[in-house]
Amino acid sequence: MCYTTRMTKSSHAQSLNERTEKAGNFVREWISSNVYNVPGLADLPREIERLASQITSDAREEGISGGDLARAVGDIDDYLTGAYEKVMPVTVDAGTV
Fold first, then answer.
1. Within a domain: residue 38?
2. Per the structure, how many domains does the chain have?
């Protein structure tokens, strides 16, 4: 006799929630270690592309899929851009003071 395990909808949802939470925790920790102000950075889109590639690769090594990352934070490029903008120094326009 062959027995198979069927995942119920609630256990599937719980598993999905756990993976999403794991991905969110991973992203927050990764960003705190890898996103920082780079003085003189001239090409933010290229830096975001580099960071997105690196976080995706590092996440895979931890068993976190791209889908899990997207469920946790939305678009990874947008999320990284927001994170990077938070660490950039604020500049004051002398013409508006």
1. no
2. 1
**Dihedral angle computed from the Cα positions of residues 52, 75, 65 and 49, in that order, rounded to the nearest 10 degrees:** -10
Q: Is residue 83 one of the residues assigned to a domain?
A: yes
> In the chain, how many H helices and how many E strands?
4, 0
> Residue 44: which of 10, 75, 87, 4 has the closest Cα?
87
Report the SS3 class of residue 17: helix
Reported as a single tens digit per residue, the pLDDT across 41-86 is 888 899 999 999 999 999 999 999 999 999 999 999 999 999 998 9
Residue with tokens 């705190």: 32
